[in-house]
Amino acid sequence: MKSPITRRADRPTTAQFGTRRRVLIPLTLGFAVLASMLVMTSRGVLALTFATSSQNFRVYSDSLSGSSLAAYAGPQQTSAGVKGTEQLVVQDVQLHGLCIISTADLPVLGKASMIVTAGEPVDGTTDPAFAPIRTASALVSATSINGDGRGVSSLAVGQSAETLTTGSGPWRGTPGALGIQLDTATIDRTDLDAAGLQIDGQLPLNRLGIKTALGAAEKGSCS
Q1: 140: burial class by Cβ within 10 Å (0-12, 13-18, 19+)?
Q2: Average pLDDT score, the chain
Q3: C-alpha 102: how far from chain center
Q4: C-alpha neighbours within 13 Å on the C-beta side of residue 164
Q5: What is the rounded CA–CA span in Å between residue 117 and residue 205?
Q6: What is the per-residue pLDDT across 149-185, written as a single tens digit (0 to 9) for each?
Q7: Which stretches of the chain are assigned E, i.e. beta strand?
């Protein structure tokens, strides 16, 4: 059993990897740093943490599954202050496709989005021709979690957050907060409105692609 995670209108533009189309406008410094970090992660160099800004980002996958899940409602610190989120930790994570879209207001350009894709195309269906993305555990802070749940086992709702466990040890949330505990679960057509994401351990990102687009990109940009 693994140990639990520690809490704590599309015009393609720049950085590109694999067969992605070439750059049309340069990445901003923050986007460039994120792109570099993701490339290092894809080579198994480091664990991945998305720093929390004042804006959420969208996380999409055709299917997310895992074991020893625990969640509770709790605060998330952002650069704009504290916001209420659902804190979800998952062990033995498998993702059939991954797409992360972050949108920011930039000087001169206005709204621009970074679109990060890995694994199979995120198009609403899983393809057995592609190997899933796997990692030991993940912690997500999300203001909404949507999808079609299946394979749920040993669901316990109403457990006090400070009594939650994950993996082989405790994962203590805000005392008195409503906690949820599951042994296993799969969420098809996963759609997370996330404020923070932390991957515990290395995250191999096969078929990694990173591009930017003018405007606020939507899920259609993932496939």
Answers
A1: buried
A2: 78
A3: 11
A4: 35
A5: 9
A6: 998 999 999 889 999 988 878 888 888 888 999 999 9
A7: 47-50, 57-78, 81-96, 98-106, 110-118, 133-153, 156-160, 165-166, 169-170, 178-202, 209-214
